[in-house]
């Protein structure tokens, strides 16, 4: 079994909202906006909860090891 097929990460992705830290996500968004970044890449984005908070004018991308998370 490879890390990509891990039951742990599939389970984590299924319960992604339980692991969400809204205050941290807002802090990161505000930091990126204040630094006037043009793009954001989140490594280990799970279902992309944090990425949804960024302004539409930014190029926002995320990658994750879990296919379940990416499908969500």
Task: Write the topology of this structure.
Blueprint (H helix, E strand, L loop, with lengths): L6 H8 L7 H13 L4 E5 L15 E5 L3 H5 L1
Parallel strand pairs: 1-2
Question: What can you see in these coordinates?
Answer:
With 72 residues, the chain is α+β, with helices and mostly antiparallel strands. It has one domain. 36% of the residues lie in helices and 14% in strands. The protein contains 3 helices and 2 strands. A two-stranded parallel ribbon has the order 1-2. The model has no long low-confidence stretch (mean pLDDT 83).
Comma- or semicolon-separated keywords:
72 residues; alpha+beta; elongated
Largest sheet: 2 strands, parallel
The N- and C-terminal alpha carbons lie at a distance of 22 Å
Helical stretch count? Answer: 3
The low-confidence runs, each spanning 5 or more residues with pLDDT under 50, are none
Radius of gyration: 13 Å
Question: What's the overall geometry?
Answer: elongated
Residue share in β-strands:
5-15%
Task: Give the helix/strand class.
Answer: alpha+beta
* Total discrete domains: 1
Quick recap:
The protein is of the alpha+beta class and 72 residues long.
């Amino acid at each position: 079994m490879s890390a990509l097929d891990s039951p742990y990460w599939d389970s984590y992705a299924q319960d992604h909202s339980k692991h969400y830290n809204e205050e941290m996500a807002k802090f990161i968004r505000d930091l990126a906006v204040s630094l006037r970044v043009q793009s954001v890449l989140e490594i280990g984005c799970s279902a992309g909860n944090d990425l949804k908070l960024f302004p539409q004018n930014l190029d926002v991308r995320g990658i994750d090891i879990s296919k379940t998370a990416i499908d969500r």
